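Bug #77: duplicate submission created two jobs. Keeping one. Sequence:
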Amino acid sequence: MISIQTVINLIEKFAPKKLSLEWDNVGLMVGASSAKVKKILVVLTVTPGVVEYAASSGVDLIISHHPFIFKPLNSVRQDLPVGKMIIEAIKHDIAIYSAHTNLDVAKGGINDLLAQKLGLEKVEVLEKTFEEPLKKIVVYVPKGYEEVVRDSMGDAGAGHIGNYSHCSFNISGIGTFKPLEGSNPFLGRQGELERVEEVRVETIAPASRVKKILNAMLKVHPYEEVAYDIYPVENEGCAFGLGRIGYLKTPVTLGELCRIVKQKLEVEFLRVVGEPNRKVSKIALCGGAGGSLISKAVFAGADAYITGDIKYHEAEEAKASGIALIDAGHYSTEKIILNFLAEYLKKELAELESDVSVEVYDEGDPIKIV
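Kept job's structure:
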């Protein structure tokens, strides 16, 4: 049986906590990371109905998108909704974990899924919130072994530049060393200075993957003691952020884009700013409440912006700025993550040969149109 921490590691491999925004609250909200888990429930929001269902279904861990505890608590009262849910969760040994803006920002997360669902091309981040620092790794390899070392590093994540992987630069030279007493040299003899043909392999890597890359390299490198260097570089790393902006395959009218949004996101009603007959091609989007990014979408040259929870004055801002606006609702622009996250966990858990079950519980949109 695996621990809750193991599940957390899987989630944070996909959506690291470092990607979350400063004001956010993500991570384990209730429970112990060392507790064992047999059943996981994936939800958008932890509600009394979710906790009740989890308690009656033998769930050990609830994974929510919206933070279960967002603002600091002054008390845990059984006669108030949040306090009652905390008490019920503890009573039934149910842990609660939340992945919020880190799941919005992550590559392949909510915003990328939305862009993919709507058929956008040439997709970029709308507002950068984090940039992965880069490191240069240099390792010296005896001639004839450079390929296996280079490939192991590339397979571990080194050498990614744009749409290319396994990028490296290789220089031949002479390495010198003298094995001392107690050594077990791959080449040469103790007490004798050796001159060996070596290859200097240089590659670049995200700072977060350096340890994994070094471990992969050391496993296949033939030397007892490996000479390698790690340098900081000023190159721009992979950009992460809120929202996405891209292009439709062909321009459409705003009215046609509304039809596409309703069909793809399975939403019956939209709130729209803009003339239905105007042509749109460059589309910005942000899952959930994205009104704060309207100016970013305008500055990026978007013809239309798709998000949820638009306020009156935000709609007026869009109208005055000349950008079309589609409010598809908070729920409808985020529910896409539920099945994706559940399937991701099932796949990762299967690779661990775990029998933990994963279920989606979708209560639907709390807002009804009448």
